[in-house]
Amino acid sequence: MTEIAIVGAGLIGRSWAFLFARAGFHVRVWDPAPEVLDQLGGDIAAMVARTAPYGQAGPDPKGLGGRIRAEPDLRTALRGADLVQESGPERLETKRALFADLDAAADPGTILASSSSALLASAFAAGLPGAARCLVGHPVNPPHLVPVVEISPAPFTDPAVTERARQIYAAAGQVPVVLRREIDGFILNRLQAVVLAESLRLISEGYVDVVGLDDTVRHGLGRRWAFMGPMETINLNAPGGAADYLMRYGQMMADLARTAARDEAFTPEAAAAVGMAFAGLSTPDAIRARQDWRDGELAALAGHLAGRAHPSPSKDENR
Amino acid sequence: MTEIAIVGAGLIGRSWAFLFARAGFHVRVWDPAPEVLDQLGGDIAAMVARTAPYGQAGPDPKGLGGRIRAEPDLRTALRGADLVQESGPERLETKRALFADLDAAADPGTILASSSSALLASAFAAGLPGAARCLVGHPVNPPHLVPVVEISPAPFTDPAVTERARQIYAAAGQVPVVLRREIDGFILNRLQAVVLAESLRLISEGYVDVVGLDDTVRHGLGRRWAFMGPMETINLNAPGGAADYLMRYGQMMADLARTAARDEAFTPEAAAAVGMAFAGLSTPDAIRARQDWRDGELAALAGHLAGRAHPSPSKDENR
């Protein structure tokens, strides 16, 4: 039985606990705040109630909560874990100190994975005695409803550790993507950043309004990207496949990319314009309600896609 | 009853014919190639058969084909049309000549819309007597399964024409997005271009392989963008909404955008690497089969999303 320790039980940590338990793993959850651990059982039960109608609480929704244990003692939480999923604050000094503690306390064979989206393993794990067992396993919020996990090992991470982490995430039902080299933002946030930059620019310069921008993605690009990536998309948009597409349209796309916005698009004016468009939807209550809506849609979409059982090109032998 | 004329009955033109007829409109289809018109009835019947199981052939699938008429005479096809949807070749001189013909032959009140993805209305309609009734209505392939239509008027287009085109597309069940100023690539292809540029760069420089790149979008970003755009996505990723998000994470995103690839990423080597990843999936037969798979997934996803009836933020009064 795979044993998981969750370190930090905020929104992301609780979602990790849920998804590992959903897969049948045993999960122990530690957090420095006792009240967070006190609420854990109720939070997990609420997640089960919200996801089960879409088939997203696993084969045994009733037993899920029983496989998660709140554990106020860090050392006890770590004992016997195959993998520690750290989901603490995104500050380098905090993360370094925490990883030093984890490395000192965890069994020698335990993988130490961070949910960090902004810090690289080479920054927060360098110099630790157990540096070779450290890596980033970056999820998307919320991990139990969006399956990708970006695995980013440091140059000093043992490749066997990376491979074992990949297997554990895959066994938990996630889709692990292994980065071969570290880069700021990994893959997902780099792609999100270029979309945000060009979107903010198109809005600020008056080409389109916020609703039109969102509609273009939501009723356009996003329809394809929900079940195939941008590379497969272009492979199907020319009679001879992706290479043919890039021969036919590469110059046009290069011209568009050449004139695209970069960091200069992130202006206070652009932020104000976008903020204004969501004026009635940015109070804490409104955002919480809409996050619940989003999570319901994500669960429903996950259920829909699981039911399609379409062939995954990533599993085709000829790819 | 809305009357539509389709000029050019390739893949895109046939899809337009289908979707207008699905909405109950009367559609006449003209194409310079007689064999294309001969096959039209069979093509439409096949589209009905493929989409009806997902509820994407409209309320009257049996009657859909009867509302489409192949018309070998251009002048007859145009007569009485509210809107002409031109879907011919993407060459400026061809498009200019065709629009001159359409403008000379169509009734004065008819809107002349082009499906062009690469040419702007100000380029192909400038100087025509009826320039004010010309615009671009750019669809995504295939339009009957991906609802967005980018409406891009020229500076000389009558705003009342733009508004009437918007109403017609919306009544046909599409999601029209009106651009306020012309720009190469409109919105959708500009966003696609920056994603392709950074994707090709991340693959070429060895950060991730093609499958990993596609998995990151398909099992990550695309899960959210299938039902909400990038602006609403960030509005839900900070406790104070989009403006708060940009204050907290804008600098990080700007740094990622600053170091992102642009046109230099479209190298022959990158094209070869992507082509290689799809080696077994790039024969004409394999691509056709996979396009059919894609269209089935798009139809199923459209059916799923229609069934969700989630509140559209673009229709909220407070946005």
List the helices and strands and how they pair.
2 copies of one chain form a homodimer.
Chain A: E1 3-7, H1 11-22, E2 26-30, H2 34-51, H3 61-64, E3 68-70, H4 74-78, E4 83-86, H5 92-105, E5 111-114, H6 121-124, E6 134-139, E7 148-153, H7 159-171, E8 175-178, H8 188-204, H9 210-225, H10 230-235, H11 241-258, H12 268-277, H13 284-308
Parallel strand pairs in A: 1-2, 1-4, 2-3, 4-5, 5-6, 7-8
Antiparallel strand pairs in A: 6-7
Helix pairs in contact in A: 1-2, 8-12
- Give the rounded overall mean pLDDT of chain A: 95
CATH architecture descriptor of the largest domain in chain A = 3-Layer(aba) Sandwich
N-to-C series of helices and strands of chain A: EHEHHEHEHEHEEHEHHHHHH
Query: Largest protein interface?
Result: A-B, 120 and 119 residues
What kind of sheet is the major sheet of chain A?
A: 8 strands, mixed
Q: CATH-wise, what's the superfamily of the largest domain in chain A?
A: NAD(P)-binding Rossmann-like Domain
What proportion of the residues of chain A form beta strands (DSSP E)? 5-15%
Number of helices, counting only DSSP H or I runs of 4 residues or more of chain A: 13
Number of distinct beta strands of chain A: 8
Short description:
The structure is a homodimer of 319-residue chains. Chain A has 319 residues and is of the alpha/beta class.
Describe this protein's structure.
The structure is a homodimer of 319-residue chains. Chain A has 319 residues and is α/β, with parallel strands linked by helices. Chain A folds into two domains: 3-178, NAD(P)-binding Rossmann-like Domain (Rossmann fold, 3-Layer(aba) Sandwich); 191-313, N-(1-d-carboxylethyl)-l-norvaline Dehydrogenase, domain 2. The first copy, chain A, has 13 helices and eight strands. Chain A has helices at 11-22, 34-51, 61-64, 74-78, 92-105, 121-124, 159-171, 188-204, 210-225, 230-235, 241-258, 268-277, 284-308, and strands spanning 3-7, 26-30, 68-70, 83-86, 111-114, 134-139, 148-153, 175-178. In chain A, strands 3-2-1-4-5-6-7-8 form an eight-stranded mixed sheet, with helices on both faces. The interface between A and B is large, with 120 and 119 residues.
